[in-house]
Amino acid sequence: MKTKITIFLVLLLIFSNSAFAAGNELSGKVHPKLSASALVKKSLSLIGKNYPCVDNNMNAFYKEQIQKNNSCVTTNEAILNIKKSSYLKSKTDLAFVEQVRGNCNPGENDQYVVKLQGGPISALEMDVVKNPFLGTFNHNPEESYSFEYDNDVYQGGKEYYVVLFKQKPSEGRMLYRGKIFIDKESLAIGKIEYSRNVENRFGSFDSFFAKKPKGRDIKMTGADYVVKYREFDGKWYFDYSTSNISFVLSNRQDHTYDTYSVKSQIVVTNLVAENFSVDKTNIIKSNDILSDKIKEFNLSSQWDVCNLILLLASSNL
After folding, report:
1. Mean pLDDT for the stretch of residues 16-27
2. Is 220 exposed, middle or buried (0-12, 13-18, 19+ CB in 10 A)?
3. Residues 239/17, Cβ–Cβ less than 8 Å
C-alpha cells in the first residue's frame, strides 16, 4: 500500500437567505456625488452605525467539499453555535460544534489526502467588514486598490451602488479584485464578491498550504469568495460566505497531474439565538480539521433543513 501524504490546506483569509435574490441592473448610473473610493471609505466609516456594536449569539450551518478531477473526495458538515463579537472590537469570533457528520470518505488508493484546516473559522474570517478590508486598513484602502462605479442593481427589495475594485499595479502583495454592493439608503456593505490574485504568481500556494508534498508542484488556479450580510432591526449582520479554492497538483517525475477544488460555505440559520449555551471542549480552532471530529454519519431531518437553507442562500447570490 502506498504511503499516504496528507496535505493540510489552510485558507488564510487575513481578513435568510433570499436577501440577495437574482437582481437587475438599474438603467443608467445614478451615483452619489462622492467618488467610488470616497463612497467605500464612507461606508467603512459607518460600520459602528450599521453593524452590531455588541456581541451576539448565532446558530449556523457549515459545509465543506473537496473534489478531485470533478469527483467528490470528501464532504463534511457541521451545525454550529457562534459567538459573534462586536464590529467595534478586534475580538475573534468563536465557533462551537453542535453536531458534525461526513458524507464521503477519501479513496483508499489516493496517494494524497487533502484536508481543510480551520474550516468554520476561515469562513467567519471572510467577514471583511469586521476584519481589515481585504488586506488593507479600513481608513485608507485606496493606497492598495483602485475603485470605479459599475451599474447600480436592485436586489431583494433594495437598491445598491456597485463599486468595482482591483489591486493597484504598484502594490506588490498578492491582494484581491472584485465588486462591493453598498446599500443606497444606509450606505452599509450588503455583499462583496472577490477573488485573490493568485493567477500567474509564483509561490502563491504558500498562502494556502501548510504542507507541500515532496516531488510535487502546486499551481493555484483560483481563489474566489462571496460574503453577504442581512439587515435586521436596523443593523446588518453577517449572513453567508462561500469560498472556492482550486489548484493543480502535478508529479514532476511522470508528468501526471490532478485538479482539486476545495469549497466551503457557511450560512446563519438563526440570526439572534436565545438560550444560547456552549461546551468549550467543542470549540473550533484555526488549526483544527473538521473531519477529525466526525464520529458517525447522522441522518436526522435537521441536516436536510440546514442543507435546504444553504441551497437557498447559494442560489440567490
Report:
1. 49
2. buried
3. yes
Averaged over 106-114, what is the pLDDT?
A: 57
* DSSP H or E stretch at residue 305: helix 301-315
- Alpha-carbon span 317 to 308, nearest angstrom: 15
Q: What is the tens place of the pLDDT at every residue in 119-136? A: 899 899 999 999 887 888
Query: Assign residue 255 a region: left if phi > 0, alpha if psi is -120 to 50, beta otherwise?
Result: left
The residue whose grid cell reads 460566505 is: 241
Does residue 79 sit in helix, strand or coil?
strand
CA max distance for the chain = 67
Domain edges within the chain: 5-315
DSSP tag of 157: T
In contact, 117 and 288? CB cutoff 8 Å? yes
Residue-wise pLDDT for 3-13, tens only, equals 333 344 443 33
Tell me which of 275 and 162 has the higher pLDDT: 162
Distance of CA 38 to the CA centre of its chain: 25
- pTM comes to 0.84
149, 164 Cβ separation under 8 angstroms:
yes
Do 224 and 178 meet the contact criterion of CB atoms below 8 Å apart? no
Please name which of 288, 297, 231 lies closest in space to residue 117, comparing C-alpha atoms: 288
Helix (H) or strand (E) holding 164: strand 158-167
pLDDT at residue number 297? 56
Q: Are 121 and 127 in contact (CB under 8 A)?
A: no
* Angstrom distance (rounded) from CA 261 to CA 246: 4
Residues listed for the chain: 317
d(CA 293, CA 266): 18
For 241-265, how does the pLDDT look when each residue is reduced to its tens digit (9 = 90+)?
999 999 988 887 777 888 989 999 9
| Separation in Å, CA 126 to CA 12, 178, 206 | 10, 14, 19
Q: Say if residues 157 and 199 touch (Cβ distance below 8 Å).
A: no
The pLDDT tens digits for 68-92 are 998 888 889 999 999 999 999 888 9
